Amino acid sequence: MSFDERVTRQKGDGQFLISPQFPPAVSLGRALRQRRKEIGKTMRQVAFEVGLSEGFISQIERGLSTPSLISLYNLASALGASVEAFLQQVPHPTYSMVSHASERHGYSIEAEERVYQLLQRGFPDARLNSCITHMPPGYVSELTRHEGEDFLYLIEGEMLYEIGDRQYRLTAGDTLHFPASLPHRACNVGPGEARELWVGTTRIIPER
């Protein structure tokens, strides 16, 4: 599926538009590497600040891997830049106490990986943030950690979550709530796509 133009994708929760908001992995990695060198930071320093491995930072910069949405925002912060500097277009935050499935947009960094449906915050300065993530079979996220707390509700599929030194296998309808400061990652271990509702205190869309 091409992300050069908007397309409509059919999902179990209705149709939504996929927009080419995020750049391809190669150009994203190039921009992150250039910014890191401009401010004189090593990959080790950046990795420590954002809770990622140095090897994964290297893969991102070479366009071999792509960060999750939260990791991308953390990377921008560690590089002393706004996340807008690394996105072709920035999803503008809107505020509504009601979110209609038919009006949501999906955003992705790469065509075959995660697709995010960013959910509107109900009011300015809200502390909770949320999105629905679509993950293909075999998907494995990076091992990461960040401030705040995460709450996950698995809408569809089967996922294996590694939180600290423990593993949790979830199927549709199960939930997981944990301090996001613990190292964590996720793996789609089911035969089909998994859909996850994430609610957390980490702000992934900056206020304007």
From TrEMBL:
Residues 32-86 form the HTH cro/C1-type domain. PANTHER family: HTH-TYPE TRANSCRIPTIONAL REGULATOR (PTHR46797), TRANSCRIPTIONAL REGULATOR (PTHR46797:SF25). SMART domains: HTH_XRE. Keywords: DNA-binding. GO terms for molecular function: DNA binding; DNA-binding transcription factor activity. The keyword Protein biosynthesis does not apply. CDD domains: cupin_XRE_C (cd02209), HTH_XRE (cd00093). This is Cupin domain-containing protein. InterPro entries: Cro/C1-type_HTH, Cupin_2, Lambda_DNA-bd_dom_sf, RmlC-like_jellyroll, RmlC_Cupin_sf, TransReg_Diox_bact_type. It holds the Pfam family Cupin_2. Coiled coil: none annotated. GO terms for cellular component: cytosol. PROSITE patterns: HTH_CROC1 (PS50943).
